């Protein structure tokens, strides 16, 4: 078993989309390459999470993502495995919704983000979960992320709602704050731990 | 923006205020088509053009190819474009009319005064709290609206679209009223205000302006706004309206306010918006060639268009095989990329549509910024080409670094383009064409420097600025702004004067004109149109006519001498016009 991005399957015509099929090389259990896609309503902080994770920055001025941005970041796990995340940070605007398959096709990980102060964004997150269950890779690792956890006073989505929904759908759940950097690294560490490892390198 | 400050600034800047007494203005700025119809007293004067201005509001719409003017009675509505409020607001119209009057007294430079005073323009939508009931909203000098044919607001330059639903419905009513008569409304004049309409299938675009720009210019601006929307959504948006006429399009344009506001801002500083041509960053021929060669290389590997740009200026561009890029598409694309901050953060892959190339289909754009100003755009038809384009970019970046293109670009950006002060005294000998412009600039310190400029400051013979547009190359070059055209207001005013000149030279039915010499209290404007190029030049208002003509000939010769550095050669199949340009040079005297 393998995941589409870390174990490129050149014979598979199904995946298509934005998958880096050319530079795959032989699968390596110690150095994983993983395609990760972030989905969620506009303004929930997807880009902020990525920029906090990749560059350690936080820019409070909102910069609307156009199409999708591509960034990558490698992390090392305690078992001396490295995981290189190739991250597609998608635009949350409605006009790009139809293009989402372009970015999530073949993704090994989907991070679905909502804003804990916005119930609408939580509803939108559930839409994305269903969409991925229908059209995503069958063995995709999904994480549900409640962002803006620093805004406790304006919270409108109880943490328990997130926990319950994630549990029901076999997802990993975490609340983060890109602003304070709370739980950002943990999010990616946890994802890395949950990745299916290629057990037998096929060459 | 506070009422008192903007008015006082405008009257300082604009001593030539409208001489009409206030009472005349009140009756002038007061037409709505609904009411004129309701009164049953619309007179159609097919033969009287331009005669009605002093009589009251007038409505002009196109009937087939001719323009028809309709004299309409004054209505009690206050601002001339607050149609739906109609007579219900007569009680407070007095105050508002005074407010509007103050605005009408200057000639179009209020709306960005406060922002430009604060040095630089701020992107994004402003004054979202306003709606059509706000006095400040009514005072804005130039409104742009996009609405659907069912009257749903899609975009408004000022104010919240949703709060403007009633106003949008009124605009829609005006358009459909005329359409029901089997006609199309193009323009309504109401006092100092022009209301320009553009219908694009289910999309209506409206500009309400008191900037005195020509109808053709405002219509061109609406066309660009429509093109910008198509670039974001493609023309397939029409299908949404076929399925559901009441479709609300605002969510589809979410987050694009900055794109539109930056386009609208460019109407006042970027000549590409009315010249329909692009401009290049001045670079040594070899430098541009090096950039072009690597772009050509990647274009052959399945890239449809490869563009390397610095701000709004082209460094080099290449199209695959026979694909050619329309200058308006380049303008809209670079506006889209430059106004969307996220492109600067990291490499992006985004669907975009080039309205002039194929308005129905998305292309995919790979965008990468090499530095703060310089960016690469690779366009492809293939939605999964990202990694290939990323590899292309890495190859391009290596070549650009190796051949110092990026540092040359930064240098050129610092040095700026052609300056009127540097206009050479004598045409350079043929052998020195390959000299860099910067070398020429050294000439300005030599004793031979042209010193005829006894009037005013700027270049020789009082030359303040010029724009040269090469017709075959689809390119233009404009001189840098220099004293005394220093402030944004002055630059904007000059561009509006150029725009007026441009549209008067291209007026259908009257033209084509070859030359125009116009003197007013602000400038001497000289325009020269040949089949190969157009020259627009602004001089000190006291400039001598014969000297100005001589200077224009020099400018043409100068452009010709440095054309390898200021134009992208070989980008268009027709770019062999060089010799014709030379033929035309030195013939201006014979026309004037």
Automatic annotation (TrEMBL), chain A:
UniProt KW Nucleotide-binding keyword: yes
PROSITE patterns: RAB, RAS, RHO
Keyword entries, A-Z: Nucleotide-binding
Disordered as annotated region, ranges: 1-24
Single GO molecular function: GTP binding
InterPro entries documented for this protein: P-loop_NTPase, Small_GTP-bd, Small_GTPase
Domain of life: Eukaryota
One family name in Pfam for this protein: Ras
UniProt cross-references to PANTHER family, sorted A to Z: PTHR47978
Protein name: Uncharacterized protein
Automatic annotation (TrEMBL), chain B:
Residues in coiled coil: none
Pfam family of the protein (one): Fuz_longin_2
Protein name listed in UniProt: Vacuolar fusion protein MON1 homolog
Domain FUZ/MON1/HPS1 first Longin: 142-263
InterPro entries: FUZ/MON1/HPS1_longin_1, FUZ/MON1/HPS1_longin_2, FUZ/MON1/HPS1_longin_3, Mon1
Any single GO BP term: protein targeting to vacuole
Entries under PANTHER family matching the protein: SAND PROTEIN-RELATED, VACUOLAR FUSION PROTEIN MON1 HOMOLOG
Record-annotated FUZ/MON1/HPS1 second Longin domain positions: 302-395
Annotated Low complexity bias: 1-21, 34-46, 71-84
Region of interest: Disordered: 1-100
Protein family per UniProt: Belongs to the MON1/SAND family.
Domain of life the protein comes from: Eukaryota
Function, in words: Plays an important role in membrane trafficking through the secretory apparatus.
FUZ/MON1/HPS1 third Longin domain: residues covered: 462-562
Provenance organism: Dipteronia sinensis
């Amino acid at each position: 078993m393998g995941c589409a991005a870390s174990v490129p399957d050149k014979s598979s015509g199904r995946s298509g989309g934005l998958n880096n099929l050319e530079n795959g090389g032989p699968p390596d259990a110690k150095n994983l390459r993983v395609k990760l896609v972030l989905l969620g309503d506009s303004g929930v902080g997807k880009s902020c999470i990525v920029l906090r994770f990749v560059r350690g920055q936080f820019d409070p001025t909102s910069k609307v993502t156009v199409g999708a941005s591509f960034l990558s970041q490698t992390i090392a796990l305690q078992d001396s495995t490295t995981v290189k995340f190739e991250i597609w940070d998608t635009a949350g605007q409605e006009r790009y919704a139809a293009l989402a398959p372009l970015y999530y096709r073949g993704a090994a990980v989907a991070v679905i983000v909502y804003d804990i102060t916005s119930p609408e964004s939580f509803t939108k997150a559930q839409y994305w979960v269903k969409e991925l269950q229908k059209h995503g890779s069958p063995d995709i690792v999904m994480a549900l992320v409640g962002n803006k956890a620093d805004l406790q006073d304006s919270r409108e989505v109880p943490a328990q709602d997130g926990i319950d929904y994630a549990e029901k759908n076999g997802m990993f759940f975490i609340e983060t704050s890109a602003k304070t950097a709370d739980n950002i690294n943990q999010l990616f560490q946890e994802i890395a731990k949950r990745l299916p490892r290629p057990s037998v390198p096929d060459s | 923006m506070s009422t008192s400050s903007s008015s006082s600034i405008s009257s300082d800047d604009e001593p030539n205020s409208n001489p009409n007494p206030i009472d005349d203005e009140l009756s002038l700025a007061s037409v709505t088509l609904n009411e004129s119809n309701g009164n049953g007293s619309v007179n159609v004067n097919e033969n009287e053009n331009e005669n009605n201005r002093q009589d009251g509001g007038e409505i002009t719409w196109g009937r087939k190819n001719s323009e028809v003017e309709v004299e309409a009675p004054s209505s009690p509505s206050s601002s001339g474009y607050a149609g739906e409020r109609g007579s219900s607001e007569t009680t407070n119209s007095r105050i508002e009319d005074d407010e509007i009057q103050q605005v009408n007294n200057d000639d179009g430079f209020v709306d960005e005064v406060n922002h430009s005073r604060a040095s630089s323009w701020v992107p994004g939508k402003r004054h979202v709290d306003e709606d059509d009931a706000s006095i400040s909203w009514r005072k804005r000098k130039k409104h742009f609206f996009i609405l659907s044919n069912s009257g749903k607001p899609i975009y408004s330059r000022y104010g919240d679209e949703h709060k403007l639903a009633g106003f949008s419905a009124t605009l829609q009513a005006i358009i459909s009223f005329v359409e029901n008569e089997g006609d199309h409304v193009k323009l309504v004049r109401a006092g100092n205000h022009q209301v320009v309409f553009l219908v694009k299938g289910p999309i209506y675009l409206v500009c309400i302006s008191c900037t005195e720009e020509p109808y053709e210019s405002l219509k061109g601006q609406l066309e660009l706004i429509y093109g910008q929307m198509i670039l974001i959504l493609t023309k397939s948006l029409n299908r949404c309206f076929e399925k559901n006429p009441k479709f609300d399009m605002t969510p589809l344009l979410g987050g694009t306010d900055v794109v539109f506001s930056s386009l609208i801002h460019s109407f006042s500083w970027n000549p590409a918006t009315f010249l329909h041509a692009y401009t290049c960053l001045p670079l040594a021929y070899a430098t541009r060639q090096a950039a072009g060669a690597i772009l050509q290389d990647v274009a052959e590997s399945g890239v449809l268009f490869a563009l390397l740009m610095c701000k709004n200026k082209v460094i080099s561009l290449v199209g695959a095989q026979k694909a050619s890029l329309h200058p308006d598409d380049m303008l809209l694309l670079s506006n889209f990329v430059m106004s969307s901050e996220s492109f600067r953060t990291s490499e992006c892959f985004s669907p975009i549509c080039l309205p002039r190339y194929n308005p129905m289909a998305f292309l995919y754009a790979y965008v990468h910024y090499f530095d703060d100003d310089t960016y690469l755009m690779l366009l492809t038809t293939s939605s999964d080409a990202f990694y290939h384009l990323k590899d292309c970019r890495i190859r391009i970046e290596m070549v650009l670094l190796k051949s110092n293109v990026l540092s040359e670009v930064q240098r050129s950006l610092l040095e700026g383009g052609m300056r009127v002060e540097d206009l050479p005294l004598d045409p350079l000998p043929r052998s020195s064409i390959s000299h860099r412009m910067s070398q020429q600039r050294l000439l300005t310190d030599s004793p031979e420097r042209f010193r005829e400029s006894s009037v005013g400051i700027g270049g020789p013979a009082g030359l303040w600025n010029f724009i040269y547009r090469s017709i075959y190359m689809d390119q233009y070059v404009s001189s840098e702004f220099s004293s005394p055209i220093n402030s944004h207001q002055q630059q904007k005013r000059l561009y509006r004067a150029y725009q007026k000149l441009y549209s008067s030279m291209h007026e259908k039915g009257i033209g084509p004109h070859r030359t125009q010499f116009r003197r007013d209290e602000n400038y001497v404007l000289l325009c020269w149109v040949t089949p190969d190029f157009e020259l627009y030049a602004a001089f000190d208002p006291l400039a001598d006519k014969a000297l100005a003509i001589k200077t224009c000939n020099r400018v043409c010769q100068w452009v010709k001498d440095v054309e390898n550095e200021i134009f992208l050669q070989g980008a268009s199949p027709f770019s062999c016009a060089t010799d014709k340009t030379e033929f035309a040079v030195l013939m201006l005297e014979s026309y004037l």
